[in-house]
Amino acid sequence: MTVTILVMTLGAVVYATNRGNSDESLMLPVALSPDGMTIDQGTLPFLTADEINNIAIFSNVSPSVVFVTNTQLRRQRFSLNVLERPAGSGTGFIWDKSGLIVTNFHVVSGANKIKITLQSGKTYLAKVVGASPEKDIAVLRIDAPDENLKAIPLGDSSTLSVGRKVLAIGNPFALDTTLTVGVVSALGREIKSMSNRTIKNVIQTDAAINPGNSGGPLLDSMGLLVGINTAIYSPSGASAGIGFAIPVNTIKAIIPQLIEFGRLYRPVLGIETLTDYWAKRLRVRGVAILSVKEGFPAQAAGMVGVQEDRRGNIHLGDVIIAINDEPVINEDTLLSLLEQLDSGDAVKVTTLRNEKIYNYEVILKSPDP
User: Fold this and answer.
1) Does a structural domain hold residue 8?
2) What are the Cα distances from residue 353, in Å, to 273, 307, 358?
3) What is the pLDDT of residue 42?
4) Which of 40, 110, 125, 244 would be a feasible disulfide site paired with 231, CB 3.0-4.6 Å?
5) Looking at 89, 214, 221, 336, which residue is catalytic?
6) Pick the catalytic residue: 136, 176, 206, 318?
């Protein structure tokens, strides 16, 4: 006797129908058939509806998960010969059937060669299409036949709530295609990227995430991508029940930019800012303008940078303290605010200069190609 399981086309979500009883903890004497579409009684031990859900999601999504190997050239200490050596490994997933692979930037940072291994065991060399160190996301491309590429189904991270079940698939400690299960522990967290930029609205989960899981998918109970696993909080360096994932909605906004421009697209004011070192020494609160670029919006608006008088004394120019009345604390917050805007937008830039407040209307410009 077989009972058909309904499978959503977008996420391979499996609903085990149990008429007359809605308790998900009910033990069901069922097993998934090889095609993942039917249940055969008596071939496996008793399974819960939650176990059936886990099995079906892993079966359907794991072909979309890839193993990423980062190799770098290293010079031998005594012979000075240059050898290619593995520098690390991580996880990625297939974005579309054109061969695009998404992973964390820190997984492929500094690589001389990147190899992608599919679940089938076939390995391909990858090229970097675009990267965003500030968001810890990289897009790669492999030249593989369409039939070997199964794109991961995308979800909506805005629908998540604390307590929702999530699943992580990755390659912890180079143990390929490993499944862990947990819940959303918190939302709206902030973590630092390799470039010391703040990544906002990060998902916190207790699904076990270890070194090697980076770049792998975080899935909801529908089998849809809701995040990309990127970091853990652990004194020992291993999973301590606190993992972080970049929301899929952030990824969906960035990927088209990385494909088109090779980097994160951000409209510009046309300024060079004072370094953090000097900003701290001068006790600047906000973002001090070192100089304005000729032909850019800041110059057209009349903003000024650092100036030197005849005696060699340095005088601060405009210090940006707000964009559209949103406080600017440092360069990180300034860039985060600009990333929410488009070129051609008119913005109100509030500055402090010589203890006076100035408000400029600036038309943002596209970044240089």
Assistant:
1) yes
2) 15, 12, 7
3) 53
4) 244
5) 214
6) 136
Distance CA 71, CA 125 (A): 11
Question: Do 290 and 323 belong together in one domain?
Answer: yes
pLDDT at 132 over 50: yes
Is residue 50 classed as helix, strand or coil in its secondary structure?
Answer: helix
Helices then strands (H, E): number in the chain? Answer: 6, 26
CATH assignment of the domain containing 214: 2.40.10.10
Cα separation, 42 vs 31, in Å, equals: 8
H helical segments located in the chain: 49-61, 105-108, 248-261, 276-281, 297-301, 331-338
Note whether residue 326 is domain-resident.
Answer: yes
Catalytic residue (one of 64, 106, 157, 220): 106
Q: What is the rounded CA–CA span in Å between residue 52 and residue 12?
A: 12
The answer to whether 106 is a known catalytic residue is: yes
Burial tier of 281 (Cβ tally within 10 Å: 0-12, 13-18, 19+): exposed
CATH number at residue 345: 2.30.42.10
Within this chain, do residues 232 and 296 fall inside the same structural domain, yes or no? no
Per-residue pLDDT tens digits for 271-326: 999 887 778 888 888 999 999 999 999 999 999 998 888 887 888 999 999 999 99
**369 found inside a domain:** no
Domain range for 330: 271-363
Place of tokens 């670029």: 293
Q: Is the pLDDT of residue 27 over 50?
A: no
Would you say 145 and 124 are in contact if contact means Cβ atoms under 8 Å apart?
Answer: no
CA dihedral 161, 164, 167, 173 (to 10 degrees): 70
Determine, yes or no, domain membership for 266.
Answer: no
Task: Look up 214 and say whether it is catalytic.
Answer: yes
Q: Which tokens in the block code for residue 241? A: 């029940």
364 has a pLDDT exceeding 70: yes
163 and 245 belong to one structural domain: yes
Is pTM beyond 0.85? Reply is no
